[in-house]
Design a protein that fits this description.
Elements lengths: L1 H50 L16 H20 L9 H6 L1 H21 L2 H5 L1 E4 L3 E4 H17 L2 H6 L11
Antiparallel strand pairs: 1-2
Helix pairs in contact: 1-2, 1-4, 1-6, 2-4, 2-6
């Protein structure tokens, strides 16, 4: 009987350790996917900034919409805002908005600064932090790892709205690329 009990305890311990290892492995694999998502977001926004003539950066597809540069800025600044808020990271200093909104170089610098910051925060996030559950904007409780997926969703949804700016001006948006 004692041998049976010892075997049962050992099996439970082995399953527990195996489950923890699988959870860490999945989370690390998911973190890698999230890093690729950040890269895809950055690449798309940079491609949009490169594809739109600077003379149309302040153009709106509709009167109610943000202009092109404001929409790109919104996508990238949300990444910084959310990462700083939910991972207690000090956000980078904001560059001059006149350059950000009016020049290709300024807009690309803003995008790259935002995604450099987010990538660094994600790389440094501990496993314990990834598993911690937090309330996300008063809407729902989610594990911190899921915040990166929410950032991705917001960035891609916001960037998708920029297609109207290209179409309005008779231009094709940058080609879609898989990450």
């Amino acid at each position: 009987m004692r041998t049976l009990f010892t075997l049962a305890v050992f099996c439970c311990f082995a399953v527990s350790v195996s489950a923890q290892e699988a959870m860490h492995s999945m989370s690390d694999t998911h973190r890698d996917a999230q890093m690729r998502q950040l890269g895809a977001q950055r690449s798309l926004l940079v491609a949009m900034a490169d594809s739109m003539p600077e003379s149309l950066y302040r153009d709106r597809a509709t009167p109610e919409q943000r202009d092109f540069a404001q929409q790109v800025h919104h996508a990238a600044s949300a990444v910084v805002f959310i990462a700083a808020r939910y991972f207690s990271a000090e956000p980078p200093q904001q560059p001059d908005t006149a350059a950000t909104f009016n020049t290709r170089e300024g807009l690309k610098t803003f995008i790259n600064t935002a995604y450099d910051f987010a990538g660094d925060v994600l790389k440094k996030q501990s496993m314990e932090s990834r598993m911690e559950v937090v309330n996300f904007f008063g809407q729902m409780d989610i594990p911190r790892w899921q915040i990166w997926d929410e950032i991705h969703q917001h960035s891609m949804w916001t960037a998708g709205q920029l297609v109207a700016n290209f179409r309005k001006n008779g231009m094709a948006p940058p080609a879609f690329a898989f990450f």
